Amino acid sequence: MSRICLDHQHMGVPHHLTKQFYVVLSVFFILTDAMARAQVNVEPNTAVLNEGDPTELLCRYAHHSITYCRIEIPGEPKVFNLSPDWNKTPGFTYFGKGLQNGECGVNIQRVKAINNGQVKCNLGVEGEELSGTIDLVVALRPKQPAVELMTKADSEGYFSEGVTFQARCIVPDGRPAGNITWFLDNEPANKPLGQMEFVASHPANTGLELATTIQSIKWNLGPEDNGRKLICRSHHQTDRESLPPQEGSYTILVRYAPIHKEDTTVYGLYLEQTVKVNMTIRANPAPVIEWTIDGEVVRQGEQKGRFSVFEPEYLGQDMYNVTMIIAGLTLEDTTKTYILRASNALGTTDYNVHLSSSATPPSSGLEIGAIVGIVVAVAVLILIVLLVLFARATGRWCFGVISQVFCM
């Protein structure tokens, strides 16, 4: 027992109070030591295993040898009275360094689902019985995850662009509880997630206490979300290479107005030829098209003079090709203002289009000829510098400076 020395005279404490303090302190240490000696240590405190896994569970009394050891395992009809030479029940053997060393444990060759629960060991020590417990969790694979919508779609199953979409994943009846990860088309979702919740569940007529995992996800929908698959993937103790994580999924459908684009210039059109002007538009649902040419409107399926406008052609992935044909392109046509208007139930978008008879758009960088000229100029400059240096070194050339001639 540790000793604590106190100078009660210097502390100004009355002598009779100091004696009482020592008595209380001594009793405290005695009780603490007794509690430590009465404690049964277990390894591990909790064992989480799959059905069929082996395990070793150990109870230890560090201060004295033990005279007997009884271990109770959930689901087993017998109480095991273990010792190093005990070998009466197939699949169960003694584990430890011997009763004389205060150790008694059990080696379970294959854990069964019915073994889930609290393993209890009772040790005989100096005429009394001490107990310890180990939580043995035999994992049960949860049921298939389900994605549940918290934001409702319209009658056709669509959401509008900009809507705050919210859903939750439910992974029911696992032991222990499963974990959840979210994906969009097999890429990490990287969207705001709610706190993962673990709720106790009791499937009917099973007598089991299991756990259901729930987590929510939400974000504002954009055009890029249309047709993407939202995947909720559960991860669990029972996952194996031959038994991969389970998934639940939901395909998101989004309607949106035609997407805006910067002004477009169509190049390579030949004067006096019938030309085709093509534009690609992304929208859902399909857009309705009209062109305004210097104030005159030509709708899809119409022809006015030399201008014909066709219905949009679906290219897939919400992309539509819009075509206008001009018969006998004139120089004046390349100076006109063209406005393409695309509309659907979600909105209207205007696109400014320019026509050009140039074969290619002007380069934003240096032309090839300019680059070659720069290279030649640099080469000539280097050659001149080399000649001057050579002349200075050999003294072959003379240079006039302020009406005097100096030879170098």
Features:
single chain, 408 residues, mainly beta, Immunoglobulin-like, 5-stranded mixed β-sheet, 3 helices, Ig-like_fold, membrane, signal, cell adhesion
Question: How do the helices and strands line up, and which of them pair or pack?
Answer:
Layout: H1 8-11, H2 15-37, E1 41-43, E2 46-50, E3 55-60, E4 68-72, E5 80-81, E6 92-95, E7 103-108, E8 117-125, E9 128-139, E10 146-149, E11 159-160, E12 164-174, E13 179-184, E14 187-188, E15 197-201, E16 210-220, E17 229-235, E18 247-251, E19 254-255, E20 264-266, E21 275-282, E22 288-293, E23 296-299, E24 303-304, E25 307-309, E26 313-316, E27 319-326, E28 338-344, E29 347-355, H3 368-394, E30 398-401, E31 404-407
Parallel strand pairs: 2-9, 11-19, 20-29
Antiparallel strand pairs: 1-3, 3-7, 4-5, 4-8, 6-7, 8-9, 10-12, 12-16, 13-14, 13-17, 15-16, 17-18, 21-27, 22-23, 22-28, 24-25, 25-27, 26-27, 28-29, 30-31
Keywords: Cell adhesion, Disulfide bond, Glycoprotein, Membrane, Repeat, Signal, Transmembrane, Transmembrane helix
Protein name: Ig-like domain-containing protein
Domain Ig-like: 145-251
